[in-house]
Design a protein that fits this description.
Elements: H1 2-23, E1 25-30, E2 38-39, E3 45-46, H2 48-60, E4 63-68, H3 71-80, E5 84-90, H4 93-98, E6 100-107, E7 110-115, E8 133-136, H5 140-147, E9 156-159, H6 162-170, E10 176-180, H7 184-190, E11 198-203, E12 210-215, H8 221-236, H9 239-246
Parallel strand pairs: 1-4, 1-5, 8-9, 8-10
Antiparallel strand pairs: 2-3, 5-12, 6-12, 7-10, 7-11
Length: about 260
C-alpha cells in the first residue's frame, strides 16, 4: 500500500511539473543568421533552427516562441531573464561554467579570410603574426587572438561590429578577418560588398565551433533537463536529419 501511494505521488509530481512547464512561455532568441535563424519578408522567424525549436517544444510539451534580434541584445536578454534561451550560442570553456548547455544543434567552422588579390604564406595561425588580423571587439575571437599572441599594439585590428569589420577588409585597412563563413555571402551582399573578391586563407580547427541550445542557469533544472532530453529524442527520431534535407543544409556530423 505504501509503495502504491508513493507511485501515485510521483506520478502527481511529474504531472504537476509538466503543467507548470506548459504554463511558462519560453523565449528562444538569436541574431539574424541565414539559414539557421532569420526573418522572412513578413518579419516572421524562419530557418533550420527555428523549426528545430518548434519540434523540441512540441516534444517537451512546452510553450515558447522565437525572436530574432541583434546579437548584443539577444545575449543581454538571455542573461537577464531566466526563461530566455539562446538558439545557437558558441560553446567555449568559459561559457560552459556560466550557462547551461542543453545540446549541440549545428557547427560553424572558423577561418581567416582575405582578399583574393592578396597572397599570404600561411601554415598556421602563428604564421599570421605580423599581418593585420581583425575581429569584432569583445567577441570570443578577440580573446582567442590575444591568447594566441596578437595584440592591438602590433597586429590585432578590432572593429566595433561585423559590418565595419568586413568593410575594413575590402578597404584594405586589415589583411585578414577571423570569422565563420556560414552566411558570409549573404552578409556581404546585404552591405553592398562582392563575395567573389574574398576567399578562405586558413582554417582554424582548434577554434570552438559547436553551436548549442543554451539556458540561463536560473531556468528550472527540471525544465532544462526536459528540453535537453527532448532535443536528443528529436535527433534520434530522424527529424533533425529531415530538417537538414528540407533546408538543403550541409549535414552536421558533430551535432
Amino acid at each position: 500500500m505504501k509503495s502504491f501511494v508513493s507511485a501515485i505521488l510521483c506520478m502527481f509530481i511529474v504531472a504537476f511539473s509538466k503543467s507548470v512547464w506548459s504554463s511558462e512561455t519560453l523565449r528562444f532568441v538569436a541574431e539574424d543568421l541565414y539559414p539557421l535563424h532569420f526573418t522572412d519578408d513578413k518579419k516572421q522567424p524562419k530557418g533550420f533552427l527555428v523549426e528545430l525549436v518548434d519540434k523540441v517544444l512540441s516534444e517537451c510539451q512546452c510553450q515558447g516562441r522565437v525572436e530574432i534580434m541583434p546579437q548584443a541584445r539577444a545575449f543581454k536578454e538571455f542573461k537577464s531573464h531566466k526563461n530566455t534561451l539562446m538558439i545557437s550560442l558558441l560553446k567555449t570553456p568559459q561559457r560552459s561554467n556560466e550557462f547551461n548547455f542543453l545540446g549541440s544543434v549545428y557547427f560553424a567552422d572558423a577561418y581567416l579570410i582575405g582578399l583574393k588579390k592578396k597572397s599570404f604564406s600561411l601554415l598556421d595561425l602563428k604564421s599570421a603574426h605580423g599581418l593585420r588580423v581583425s575581429t569584432v571587439r569583445g567577441y570570443f575571437s578577440h580573446h582567442y587572438l590575444e591568447k594566441s599572441g596578437f595584440s592591438t599594439e602590433h597586429d590585432l585590428v578590432l572593429a566595433p561590429d561585423p559590418a565595419s569589420l568586413l568593410h575594413m577588409l575590402y578597404k584594405e585597412r586589415t589583411d585578414l578577418v577571423l570569422t565563420n563563413t556560414l552566411s558570409l555571402d549573404e552578409e556581404l551582399k546585404s552591405i553592398g560588398l562582392d563575395p567573389s573578391q574574398i576567399e578562405k586563407k586558413l582554417s582554424l580547427p582548434d577554434f570552438p565551433n559547436e553551436l548549442h541550445f543554451v539556458a540561463n542557469k536560473q531556468l528550472s533544472p527540471s525544465l532544462a533537463q526536459s528540453l535537453s532530453q527532448s532535443l536528443q529524442r528529436v535527433k534520434l527520431s530522424g527529424e533533425y536529419e529531415k530538417l537538414l534535407k528540407k533546408m538543403a543544409i550541409r549535414p552536421n556530423k558533430r551535432a
